[in-house]
Amino acid sequence: SKNKGRNTYTFFNTELAEYASSRLDTEIALRDALNNNEFELFYQPQICLKTCMVVGVEALLRWKRTGGQFVSPAVFIPLAEEINIISDITNWVMDTAAKQAVAWHDRLHMWVPIAVNLSGKDIHRDLPQRLKKVQYDNDIDPKTLVLEVTEGSIINNIDVAIETLEEVREQGYSVALDDFGTGFSSLHYLSKFPIDKLKIDKSFVDNIASSPKSAAVTAAIVQVGQCLELKIVAEGVEDLQQLQVLRAMGCNIAQGYYYSKPLPADDCLQFIEREKLA
Ligand code: C2E
Ligand code: CA
Ligand code: CA
Ligand code: CA
Hints:
With 278 residues, this protein is α/β, with parallel strands linked by helices. It has eleven helices and nine strands. Helix content is 51%, strand content 19%.
């Protein structure tokens, strides 16, 4: 009936309004998160499959809102990109990772390679200058930072991205292609990208022990990477079976809950001291 239709309309309208206001709340809080010191980096160890030693870590951003509620980066990173505060956040991430590298260097007398995630909007002509500032402010060896970029963020602006990434590699930083295999133009562009590492997406790793077809595709990715002289990192490794399959394929490095969840800096240092840094 007409009446029912109107109620339905009202219902959706309320839902929408609630959604919009919670989004607006989140947006307002996110704009203040940097100033309010609500961000923290967690670090997930990456393990060499030959030596079983730690060869680096990935820095993963955590946002703890006032009140203690954690928000997933999968939610707030896209929002930060939309409201154009992502470059401030990335600057904070790079600077905080650099400070952590210095603190760990003091303890271990080695530079721990720390991978930071870049957004597509960061892969621009000013990135070398931003990295120079991070380097001079913290007095780091550039080899301690690894920049993780996704295929999608390169392809949007491919010529600028290739120039930019070539320049940061000349500065001494290394570059990893993240979430490999989830894009569409992977193989065509792979040989053109100025990168050092290839990260095989978790969605491949999930099925390698159970599905021969997934295993075949993953093995092919590992081989292509090897031919291009890239180090191959498998992400999202959760069990020993997956690890054994990846090792047999010749994958170099693994990261995932099997070894460790992302950890606060102090816990990660303990992990590194226990398992040893290569
Ligand atoms: P990503 O770069 O692909 O990071 C890997 C994600 O997988 C992380 O989720 C990590 O906690 C999770 N993970 C690692 N090992 C396992 C595992 O064995 N099993 C399962 N189920 N998950 C695992 P997280 O920390 O929630 O980050 C999600 C995404 O948010 C990241 O995906 C990345 O795209 C983005 N992100 C995180 N930190 C930053 C940052 O500082 N800047 C930018 N631009 N993006 C970030
Ligand atoms: Ca990543
Ligand atoms: Ca990834
Ligand atoms: Ca992923």
